[in-house]
């Protein structure tokens, strides 16, 4: 099942594995790995990429344009909009820097590293997951992973057990402790995990971010944290309840008067109520105070409420720079027709070959079934 943005949570665990093995650190600057970066980008840290506070300018159109070119090159040329560490933005393309850092420091393709160091030790076969790439071969950690529900639950159990699997400590517990800490920029977000820790949380950008003045999952324990993907792809970990909840699929219904809230999984009250009911079904521990997720009436408003929203969605100037390789923030050797010395048809063929091979391998492995 495609995980959408729950892929980000899996990526965070993989980064935790690389850090545990000593390949790099949370506060290492990007300039350590990308010597071509200018001063503004070189000073950003791995931590800021993980908690989405790089401050780099984000729009959906520009980030999607990066998929058609090279997300790593785009991220290193994206202009700053905020002081690093001060503002949460649910960005996409900048996350491509994370798997690239793993590749630079380990000498392995990111997906090979993930299988060898994370999935394999958990007993997850390579034919149980598919991870797509962008045009230039960068793994799409922002949303390109598909895997089985039972395998996703294994990742949840790894987190529940503080990074330990059997006799092996795969993830340093200190990494997970920090990954679950909210920032001043967002009380509901850690290292690509959504958190129930904050008294409020800032949402994804659909089309603009909102701050809702209540915990993300009302009526659920505050130590809850989760991978969250569009339409309701969840891997929820609740240490105080010794509980992992996996939910994959589409929404049970769409509120036509509040479409964005229904589609943005972290804000859909149906998902919150689902988690609340599962938690409430555990009766051998003291329950949480009853809270109705529907009473808050969270809403994003119309998808395009005016010219400002339209400009944000389209972002014509920055998007054109990326696609055509012109302007101060466009990589000089990359545009939609030719990137990194390769023409568009070559890259499309390579990407299709890679994704097809993964999908066929996964389909051939379907007979293995859930364990």
TrEMBL record:
Residues 2-248 form the Beta-lactamase-related domain. Coiled coil: none annotated. InterPro entries: Beta-lactam-related (IPR001466), Beta-lactam/transpept-like (IPR012338), Diverse_Enzym_Activities (IPR050789). Gene3D superfamilies: DD-peptidase/beta-lactamase superfamily (3.40.710.10). It comes from the Bacteria. This is CubicO group peptidase (Beta-lactamase class C family).
């Amino acid at each position: 099942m495609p995980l959408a943005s729950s892929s980000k949570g899996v990526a965070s665990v993989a980064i935790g594995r690389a850090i545990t093995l000593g390949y790099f650190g949370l506060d290492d600057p990007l300039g350590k790995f990308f010597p071509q970066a200018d001063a503004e980008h070189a000073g950003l840290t791995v931590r800021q990429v993980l908690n989405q506070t790089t401050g780099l300018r984000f729009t959906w159109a520009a980030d999607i344009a990066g998929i058609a070119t090279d997300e790593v090159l785009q991220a290193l040329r994206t202009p700053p909009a905020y002081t690093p560490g001060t503002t949460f933005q649910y960005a996409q393309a900048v996350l491509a820097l994370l798997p690239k850092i793993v590749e630079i420091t380990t000498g392995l393709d990111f997906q090979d590293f993930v299988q060898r160091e994370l999935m394999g030790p958990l007993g997850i076969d390579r034919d149980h997951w598919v991870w797509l790439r962008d045009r230039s071969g960068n793994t799409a950690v922002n949303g390109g992973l598909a895997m089985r529900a039972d395998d996703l639950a294994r990742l949840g159990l790894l987190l529940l057990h503080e990074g330990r699997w059997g006799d092996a400590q795969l993830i340093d517990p200190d990494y997970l402790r920090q990954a679950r800490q909210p920032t001043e920029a967002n009380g509901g977000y850690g290292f690509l995990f959504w958190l129930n820790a904050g008294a409020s949380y800032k949402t994804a950008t659909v089309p603009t971010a909102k701050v809702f003045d209540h915990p993300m999952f009302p009526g659920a324990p505050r130590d809850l944290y989760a991978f969250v993907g569009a339409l309701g792809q969840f891997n929820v970990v609740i240490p105080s309840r010794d509980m992992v909840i996996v939910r994959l699929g589409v929404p049970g219904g769409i509120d036509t008067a509040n479409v964005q809230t229904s589609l943005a999984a972290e804000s859909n009250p149906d998902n919150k109520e689902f988690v609340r009911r599962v938690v409430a079904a555990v009766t051998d521990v003291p329950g949480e105070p009853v809270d109705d997720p529907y009473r808050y009436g969270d809403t994003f408003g119309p998808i395009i409420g005016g010219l400002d929203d339209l400009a944000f969605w389209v972002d014509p100037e920055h998007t054109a720079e990326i696609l055509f390789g012109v302007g101060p923030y466009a990589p000089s050797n990359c545009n939609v027709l030719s990137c990194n010395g390769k023409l568009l048809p070559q890259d499309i063929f390579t990407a299709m070959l890679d994704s097809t091979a993964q999908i066929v391998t996964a389909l051939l492995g379907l007979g293995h079934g859930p364990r």
